[in-house]
Structure formats: C-alpha cells, structure tokens
Amino acid sequence: MTGASGPRTYEEARRTHHDLGFDGAFLRKLERLSLVTRRSMPGPTAGSRRSPRHGSSAEFADFRDYSVGDDFRRIDWAAYARLDRLFLRLYSAEEVTTLTLLLDRSRSMHFGHPSKARTATRLAAVFSFIALHNNDRVSVLGWGEKIDRALPPQSGKALVPHVWRFISSLMAIPTPATDFAALREFGHHRRQAGLAVVISDFLTESDWRSGLRALQINGQEVTVIQVLSPEELEPGLRGDFNLRDSENDVEVEVTITPRLLRRYRAELEAHITSLRDFCRHEGMAFVQLPSDVSIPDTAMASLRAAGVVG
Amino acid sequence: MTLLSPLSLALAGLAIPILAMYMLRIHRREQVVPSTFLWRRAVEDVQTNPRWRRVRPNLLLALQLLILAALVLALAQPAYTRARTFNGDVIAIVDQSIGMQANDVAPSRLVDALQRARQIAADLPNGSVMSVIGMGAEPHLVIAESGDRDAIDRAIDSLATISSPPNYPAALNLAVSLARRGAHTQIVILTSRDSGIDAISGSINVPVQIERFGSTLRDLGITAFHASHTGGATQAVLHVQNFGREAASSDLDLFADGQLVDVRPLTLLPGTERSESWANLPDGVRQLQARLTVSDNMAVDKVAWAVVPQPVTNRVLLVTYGDYFLQTALALAPGVKLTTLSPNTYLPAAALASDLVVFDGFLPRSVPGGPVLLVNPPRSRAVGMRFGAYLRTGSVSPVPGLTGGTASLLQYVDLSDVHVARARAVTLPAWMNAVAVSGRETLLAAGQDVGRRVALISFNLEESDWPLRLSFPVAIRNLLAYLEPGLGLAASTFQTGQPVQLFPGPGTREIDIRRPDGHVDVLSAPFLVFADTGKPGLYRAREIGVGGATSITFAVNAFGARTIAGGSPALNGPDVLRFGEQSIGSSSSGVPESLGWAFGLLALTLLSAEWWYGFKR
User: Fold this and answer.
1) Shortest CA distance to B169 belongs to which of B145, B133, B116?
2) pLDDT tens for residues B326-362?
3) Cis peptide before A114 (omega within 30 of 0)
4) Are residues B135 and B66 in the same domain?
5) CA distance A62 to chain B (A)
6) How many interchain CB pairs under 8 A, A with B?
7) What predicted TM-score, i.e. pTM, was given to this entire model?
8) Domain span at residue B518?
C-alpha cells in the first residue's frame, strides 16, 4: 500500500542516495505524477499511468493518492472515511508500460558545475521514481560507444532504491565517447513498445538522428532531454587556447574573442534548433535543460510543459 | 627633407619582433572541454601546430606596423628647411595705401603682404626684435621692438587698407630712426607693385629690402573730378587713366544730384589717360557723381564725387578815400557785391546792410559789430588795438607756426617779393595774431573776438609793391574767405586722408560732420581741422552757432592715392629689390621645420584605429 510503503521507501532512498538531493516533500509530489504517453501502450501488468486509452477493469490492483484531474469516480470513499485522505483505486486493466532510461555516460557528461552526469542521474531518478510508483516498469541502459550496461525492466515501488543505485553507479564511471549508433542496438535489449527517455548532451558528431529513429522503430515513444552545462551555454574563456575534446582528444586552437563567442553561440543555437526541429518532426518530446537547473521546480515544470509527465 | 634625429630610425627594428609574434606559433593554454564539436564549427580556421607559420594578410599586423613606422618617423623628426631671409632685427613697413587693395592676387595684395610680415615674424631669430610700421599718408608705428610673436601677429593683423597714398619717405625715416644702435637691423618694405616705391633716396646705413606684391593689374580709374559754376553755367571736368597693362573699356556714368544725366563709353589703351568734360549741366546742380561701370582689380577709383561751388553774394562795403588796387581786388573777388563810400558819406546804417566792412585809411567813431578789415588805420584806438605812428619797414615775411583760421590767410600767398615802405605801429589784443611782419612790426594780423572776426593791414597799400604782386588778389580773397560770416572751407573737394580746414563763423558752438557712412563727428572749438577723411564720398558739415545752423558739403576722393608724388610706377621688374648690405636675402641659414608632430598625430590615430578594430573583433 502506498500509504504504508512510501515512507520506508523514502527513508531507504535517502539513506542510500542522499547525494541526489531529493527531500521527502519532493518525493511525495512525485508520487502524484505519472508518465504521459501520446499513444496506447498496454503492458503485461496493471499500471496507473494516465493514458488516452479508456478502459478499466473490475480487478482492483492498488491505491494511489488522489491528485487534481483524476477521475473522482475512482476515489475510494471508504478509505477516505477511515483515513481522512483521498485515495484513487487502480485496476488491473489500466495500462502498464516499460520506461527505458537511456543515459549518455560518456566523458563529456562529466563536465559542468554541477556536472551534466549528476543532473542526468537525478532526472533519471525522478523518471524511475514516477514510473515505479505508477506500477510501470523501469529499465536503464547506459551507453557510450555502445550500450554497455543495462538494468532489465524492474517494477514495484520497493525497487526504487535498487534502480537509483544502478543509475548512480552507471553514471559514476564514464565511457570514452558517445556514439548514437549504439542506440541501434536497442532492439537487442527491448522488443516491446514503451517509453524511452534519452538523456545526453548531444555534443557529438555521431548520427543522433538515426539513433533516435532506431528507438522509434523499436516501438518507443521517445523523450529527448538535452543537458548542457552553464559553461557550454555561456563559455567564460577568453584568450588563446588549445581546446582538447574530452572524448576524442581532438584539439582546436582558438583565440576566443567576443566575435568568436558570438559565432559559438550561433552554432550552439543552430544545433539546439536542429535537435528540437527533428524531435518535433518525428513526434518526440524535447526538453533542453542546463545542468544547474532546479529539478524540483524548473525541470519539473519543463517536463510538464513538454507533456512528458503529468 | 632631412631627419633631425636619424638614429631614431634604428627603432624600426622593432618591426622584427612584431612580425615574429605573428609568425611564431602562439603559446596557447591547454583546456579540456567536453566537446570541441561546436568550437570547430565556430572557429574560422583551425590552426595547425608548426613552429613557424606563414604570415597571412592581417589588418591588425598592418596597423601595428604602420603605428611603428609613424612613431619611428615622429622620433626621427623629418624636417624641411625653410629659408630664413633675415638675420637680426627687422623693421617691416607695410603699405596700407589704395594700391594694396588690388585683388589681382587673391585675395588682395595687402593680405599677401600681411602674410609675408607674419612669416618674417615667425623667422625672427632668437634675441632679435621686430617693429612694424603702417604706411599711409601718415606712417604710424603699430608695434615697436618686440620679440613677442603673438603681439607682433596681432599688430600685423590690425593693419587695413586706407584710401591715401603711401608716404614712403616719412615711413622710411621713421624706420631708420627705430634702428637699434649696435644691432644688426634690416628694413623690409612690403608694398604694391605699382606704388612707385622701387628705390631709396639718400644714403641709409640700414639695408633695405623692397618686396612688391601684385601681378598683372587691370585698373581703369578716375584720377580727377572737378565742378565749377561760372558765367551762369555749371561745368565739370573728369580725368580717367588706365593703370593696367591691357586696354580697358567702360561706360562713364554721370549723376547730377542723384539723377543720371550722361553716359559715355570709354576705351583707353594701357597707360593712357584722357579727360572728359561737361559744359552745360542743369542749373542748380549741387553734387555730381561720376562712376565707371567696369569691374577690375580696383574698386575704390571707380567712383568720384564733386561739389559744385555755389555762387555766394557777399555785400562788402569799402570806405576809402580811394585805393584803386584794393577796390579792384575786392570787386574782382567772386561772389562779392562791392559798395564803395568815401569817409564823408559813411553812415553806420550802411554798415548794418553789409556783410563785411573795409575801412581804408579811415575809422569811424564806432566800429561796426560785424567783421571788419582795417587797412592803414589812422592813429587811434579801435577794436582792442592801438595804432601809433608810422615806422619804417622793409621786406615782408610770414609769421611761422600759424594754426587755425589765420593760417589760411597766407595760403598760396608768396610774400618773399613784397616790400612795404612804412607801417603803423600796432599793439594787438590777445585774441589777434600777427600773420605777416617786417622785422618786429606787424603788417598783417587777424583774429576772432566774440561774435566777429577782424583783420588788419597796417600799412597804406600804395606805399608798398604788394598790389603789383600776384599774391595780393589771392591774399584779398583769403581775407574775404576768412572774414565772411558763416562756415567756410578752403575748397570743396579733398583727397582721402587730407585734413580739411574749417572756417566757422563767429559764435559757432560746434560743427557736426556727417561722413559718407553716416557716422557723425562733433567738433568743438577751436575747430582746428577735420582729419578723418579716409573714406571717399560726400561729407556734410553743419555749423551750429548763435545765428542758427548752416551747412556745407564737400567731397573726398581717392585721387592721388594711386601713386606717390613724383614716382613712376614700375610695373615691371623683380618682386624683391635689395639695397645696402648683401646679407639680406642671401643668408643661407634656414629654419628646420620638423614634421615629427604630424607623424606623432598619425601614430595616435592609427593606435586608436587598432584599438577600435581589436575591440570590435
């Protein structure tokens, strides 16, 4: 039951992953959220994720807290009478899907203050928490030049600490480089339709378009989250530098002047625009976040605005 | 072109390190970034890593090399040598006469001369002084023995053209008197090419350099204009001269009291002159103006004015026992209506009906209150004078130093051939002055008491040879002019710059003179002269006295100001004439004029451009 298992889960999560910086209040807010899909994705077990599919069954599966917008006909009034809290009854016919978190764990993700890897870790933790608390299944894939670490689909809110530990360990050790061609291997790991959240800085010359399309081909409803550090959004360097790429060691000699900075910003804006346009064209959700974003506030607002959670 | 500090050129070697900085690979700081993906797109050219690289066209490098070049040249101080004409003290005489107004050299000869004077001041060696003399009808010192460049320039700038001839001898004398003893002094005369100043008279110990300004002059000018009224008709005569080197044509317009009465086309060959006359101008005309319509290098001599002398009828009463010469001289004087009485028939009432009474050998008990001329008065006391016995006299000489109206009595009067046998011993009052004497005896005297003028001839004209001399009728006419009541002038036409002597009537309080430009001068007693006749045109003098206000008009023209008296304008010849020591103009010493400041300014400008370009980049 949510009301009984939730606090234990928070405490364990806080003990195990206190460095993620989530407090109990934020996790309670996450409990009231669910992943939003733009198409029906029936899974093998019951779930509580909101879906455009109208269906319900008489088989009770679980409770969850009532939140504004829920169908009030599903409120368990008996529980309300006993506990003075509103709970929503969940039934087995509701959709269950698999959320696959694809995390870029290349070296470039370990830059920034805070690092993009940490922000990606926290975002992945948020997504996994929401999914597991809505009886969805969560799978985590870490990739660099290839998909080299994978957590098979997990379900049940009790596994939140386990999933978080995996995510943290996954992002703790970087791989040399990013190659979106690795996402073509996605079919080897997952053949079932579901949700795929790709978190990366997308600072790569690899073909990210074909990689993202490969996810769609494999039945995934793709959400793209680009995380960039403040130093990448507004470089503070001035003068003569020999810039070395953290992933492929390619060096670039530059004299950073206001004029060059203007050109850099233009290139960055063009890159982000091309990514956003691609996602819009392919029906993917796109969110661009700085690594120093406030997860509880700005990041969640952006995800809601993009229709990723609700 | 020379370099004042050629060793500074060695600093040009700094170009080598500047170029080296562009050729050497720049030491860059190593910086690991997440990805060079965007930087590679942003940067225009990815630098390779050679020790040396080829210098490509670079605006910054070009600017920096130009800055270095400008700085090096600023320190090296390239200079051109400007010849110094004078060593030692300089006395500059600047011609301000009409000839300097010619604009045959733009903007005018005077402007060129002033520029030359400033240049001389700039070249003045250290420790030397400069004086500047303005040369007009009366030379004047505008600055004396000054080494202050600014003060000299201000003095030079204060000079302007005046409508009078240049008084070259007086200006040269003034300059010579300014030469400092023991100092090396040179005189430079800046004049117009046709001023006639092309030589020095006498021996002068100071070297003189004459610099003449002007080129090919085009000038057709009026040189004389006179009007008269005789025989009941008004006549005028005009003289025009072509001062230029080319034939000149013009219309000559004549205006009478502002109305155009005649137009005559004129064509004069170079250097020629001609006269034009008008015999029967309209009756009653008072003022004439002649105007040449041609436009050439001189403007001031294109117009002239003349005042027609008006017939004046003065009633003169001569009381005499009979003096043919005196009676004839008075009768022939223009404008005189003479009445002659014998002393036996004289009545005071007759004097009241006359403007002037002449008593010859006779004095009434009561001398009339108006102007009187006493000739050979009997032994008596009258009009403040005491007449004694006859004294022997001889040759006649004028009294020197006469001023005012009494000076006019001897104008054009030569007394050197006049002899007087005897004359009355005379005691003069304080208000009378002796005009001519023989030894210690007064022969001719005049003066002005309150309300009237009185003149005295203390001898019997028949006991002298004066009536046989040409000076006699002239002196009688001068006496009449002096004694006639009302404002009088010696002439009706004057030259520019010429003082005008005024003869106010008795009781005159003040004389107002309106100049052609409208400015009014108010003269008070003793009404010596009016000297502000620098501007050609018509002047109107108004006398204000006990008898009301009377006025008279006189003309001032720029005639005679074109050339100096006795001078022959040397239209040809060199621009510079030197007299005296050869040091003038032959000095080889020069003044180096550094251009370092210009290159310094250029360097500063380039530095600003380089900073701006670097900042924008």
Assistant:
1) B133
2) 999 998 887 788 999 999 999 888 888 888 999 999 9
3) yes
4) no
5) 45
6) 91
7) 0.44
8) 488-557
